[in-house]
Amino acid sequence: MKMYYTGEKGPGCEVDIEFEPEEHETPEEAAKGLWAAMVKSLSENEEFEDSNWQEMRVWSPERTKQYSGIEAWSIVWEGGLHEWGIGTSMVAHGKGWWTEPYYSFDMHFFPR
User: Fold this and answer.
1) Domain that includes residue 41, residue range
2) What is the reported pTM?
3) Are 40 and 48 in contact (CB under 8 A)?
4) What tens-digit pLDDT sequence spans the chain (112 residues)?
5) Number of structural domains the chain divides into
């Protein structure tokens, strides 16, 4: 899957991550799987060594509700690649779940 963000070249910048949405059946599995794939891909790519990937978090529905008022699994990366949550949410969805950004720097995962 590709993760999309707005970079120096403008919108539509992308990075390949090893994540297959259809392999994850629930919002929890998807959030944890996508988070792990993003951390792995970004930490192994020198181009993103200054992207603050270490600040990326996956949150439980309880923690997300404290943050956004919405009870859902989420990935939050406020200091990360610009608008990553918007573009990536367009391609991150599976049979039993779907995503949408809350702000441009986070994604919520919902059951279908």
Assistant:
1) 2-111
2) 0.94
3) no
4) 999 999 888 888 999 999 999 999 999 999 999 999 999 999 999 989 888 999 999 999 999 999 999 999 999 999 999 999 999 999 999 999 999 999 999 999 999 9
5) 1
